[in-house]
Amino acid sequence: MKTGQNHLFIPGPTNVPERVRMAMNVPMQDMRAPDFGDLTLPLFAGLKKVFRTKSAEVFMYPGSGTGAWEAAITNTLNNGDRVLMSRFGQFSHLWVDMAERLGLDVDCIDVEWGKGVPVEQYAEKLKADTEGRIKAVFVTHNETATGVTSDIAAVRAALDEADHDAMLYVDTVSGLGSVDFRFDDWGVDLAVSGSQKGLMLPAGLGILAASQKAIEASKTGTMDRCFFDFADMMKMNADGYFPYTPPTQLFHGMRESLGMIFEEGLDNVIARHYRLGEGVRRAVAAWDGCELCATDPKWYSDTVSAIRVPKNVDARDVISHGYSRYSTSFGSGLSQLAGKVFRIGHLGSLNEVMCIAGIGSAEMALADAGARIELGSGIAAAQAWYRGDMQQELKIAAE
Length: 399
Fold this sequence. Notes:
Blueprint: E1 7-9, H1 18-24, H2 37-51, E2 57-63, H3 65-76, E3 82-87, H4 90-101, E4 105-110, H5 119-128, E5 134-140, E6 142-143, E7 148-149, H6 152-161, E8 167-171, E9 190-194, E10 204-210, H7 212-220, H8 230-237, H9 248-264, H10 266-286, E11 291-292, E12 304-308, H11 315-326, E13 328-332, E14 341-345, H12 352-368, H13 377-398
Parallel strand pairs: 1-13, 3-4, 3-5, 5-8, 8-9
Antiparallel strand pairs: 2-10, 6-7, 9-10, 11-12, 12-14, 13-14
Helix pairs in contact: 1-9, 2-9, 5-6, 9-10, 10-12, 10-13, 11-12, 12-13
């Protein structure tokens, strides 16, 4: 019989704070009541702040980020439209797969898993497209499978330099509310996210921000859509309602989770994720034979670290030992990384001591799986970083 709690270090769904869990413990209510908008309208406004946008429309669909992917495509593009995409992890791969299955003409650039969006190649293709055949450029902001974050601002710069009118689509499912994201400043047209990552909620909401350019495109788009139709949503959302039954309890939870983000301050939340992620990265550097899947520091993700295990170790054994012996869930290696990588998620409701626990569990699971690492080496490296970083903050505060 296991005692204590199970520890969740997957990159989503993330830990749901007690405040949020309690906020969702409410009776069902009338979704057509005259005061329902008192609950929902502030959520749309709060999400705009998290996306850092003043002009975009924000949608909340019952579903997941995958549903929001589909909503973005089917509302704004037409069958046969050419789109520029890149594939450098399982989730960028799945987005490419969806685009092809929905009938788009996909120009896909394959990139080594461990690197991010190929901005230079995007720039070349955009400059060469003098006829404007490319209608959209897709970027996975934070590739959860490999622990890689890409430079969205650089993609916008490539579009602007080529004087290209293509819309910019961004998957920030595991980035929003954890990694810096600037919808307006970066000229994003459609940004996809979900409730179960940095927003610290259960899965169940696909969240989408759409620029006014994207909204205009939706008025002439010819792809089939019904459930995801922007027009139906905007008509009802204007007063805080939905064209179908919404997940009301999640709205109560979101009211609390957004409150927590704004109490801490969005910039402070982003800085905390860097601080926690860097501690995990320093732990990995201390483990003999282990290395990050991300091939260069410029790609490092502050929400998830994908860790390559020594050649004599099967990462699936690390995950199995972590779960069965130490009550800890780590993320698995996906597709071509199966057995080679395990993932430590460090996003959402998390602090330094929680990360130390995850690192300690990972060390024991690695040793159990046959890795020759020095127990305590990663813990010590993370502790030194967390203590040094906190001491620097205290020094700055004192000055």
